[in-house]
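Example 3.2
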Amino acid sequence: MRTPTAILNEDALASLLDELGREAAAQRFEVAPNPCVGAALLAGTEVVARGVHRWFGGPHAEIEAMRAAGAAVLSADTLVITLEPCSSHGKTPPCVDAILAAGIGRVVVGALDPDPRHRGRGLELLREKGLEVVLLEGVAPLAEVAPHFLHWTDNERLRRPRPWTIAKWAQTRTGQLIPPEGVGGGRWISSHASLEEVAVLRGRVDAIVTGVGTVVADDPRLTVRPPGDTRKSPLRVILDSRLRTPPSARILKPVQGEAESGGRTIILCIGGADPARHHALLDAGAEVHELHVATDDGVDLRDVQRHLWEELGVRRVLLEAGPILASHYLSHGFVDQVRVYTGSVNGGRGPTLAPELLRQKLAQRLDREVGPDAVFEAFVDPRGTHLRAFH
């Protein structure tokens, strides 16, 4: 372990932490439900490298900074981080272990982990190994840098855990989810550039959830294709109360070698659904799980959430569904994040999700463009508070 030398004064550290927080917040929709975290390696008072957590399941900010430093990591004696380093195994190994292995002698942290299961543990482990630990709590407030993470770790969410759910859909300029007759083969609204973005997003979730209506109407594969990470194989989950999924559906076909990847196809239905259909779907390669019935005579969405979390180990979900199922998810409060692609298509058919979206309290909104399409992203704020935006 290298003995720390000079350190920046508190004002300079606060300024650095603010910069790192803003850089990290730019990745908020890519990392959620994980926190936006930024880190910098210092040799004395000189910053030699920076890093941010860029996507869910990817390297944390501390690791990104160390990789960016290259050989200069051997001269670094201080690591500045906006949030306490993780001390437990998740999608990646504990960052505490990487910090210890790097031989860094001092760690400056802008906020403690809000999760009561881990709060303070990372700093305690570093101190036990002889590192100097400086906590400047309040300098990088999570309410500004990563408010979504505060919702993810609040008492209600920990008491009744459910997957972080991203609702994604494409719409025409008038808000319809189905293009006019003769446009996009009756299916496609968004551009090729948007489809590539979705391919990347699919490779960064644990499961893709859709409804049987979408399966019957569009016959999707819901697989990961390049430029998405085809090493990842998210589960493909169909909510199909009455087992209307055709055994010939493309989602049940084997994936095509290295050109695509897809996890198991799981159908969630109500108990007592047609036994013949059940067996036909099993023979076609699906897994069929029976759940409770909701008041609308379909599968209970709360039971769906519980099953995804407890039985399937799902933590991050991409909801790719039609307006009926998407509206149910929104109205029941089970959507945490939205991504809406508006294509350069006029008119359209079917209902719009605009009224339901307007009823939501949205936070940290981002408007951007990809190719010819407009993209709107936001967190659904369960408290109804419009939080500070980062652009």
